[in-house]
Amino acid sequence: MQDKQDTICDVPVSLLKTWVWMVTESDDPSLIDQGTDNLIQQFNSITEARDFIESYE
């Protein structure tokens, strides 16, 4: 069972970090698109995702 600290918005922190990596570090356009889509689905916008992740760190 996951610790509540390890989950943000019903998504594990590690998964969010993976999506952020996909958007910010990958050179593969399909990974960038998928990471962006996942973040937007979870947070409704990239701005909200970025703000939430920055506040979490």
Decide which structural class fits the backbone. mainly alpha
Count of individual beta strands:
2
For the biggest sheet, the summary is: 2 strands, antiparallel
* Average of pLDDT: 81
Order of strands, main sheet, comes to: 1-2
The percentage of residues in β strands lies in 5-15%
Low-confidence stretches: 1-5
What fraction, in percent, of the residue positions are helical? 55-70%
Total individual domains:
1
What's the helix-strand series? EEHHH
Shape summary: globular
Terminal Cα span: 23 Å
State the helix count: 3
Rg of Cα set: 11 Å
Topology, pairings included?
Blueprint: E1 7-8, E2 11-12, H1 13-24, H2 29-43, H3 46-56
Antiparallel strand pairs: 1-2
Would you give an account of this structure?
The chain is mainly α and 57 residues long. It has one domain (4-56). It is built from 3 helices and 2 strands; from the N terminus they run ββααα. The protein has helices spanning 13-24, 29-43, 46-56; strands spanning 7-8, 11-12. A two-stranded antiparallel ribbon has the order 1-2. The N and C termini lie far apart (23 Å).
Short description:
This protein has about 55 residues and is mainly α. The protein is built from 3 helices and 2 strands, in the order E-E-H-H-H. The model is unreliable at about 1-5 (pLDDT under 50).
Which key terms come to mind for this protein?
67% helix, two-stranded antiparallel sheet, 57 residues, 7% strand, mainly alpha
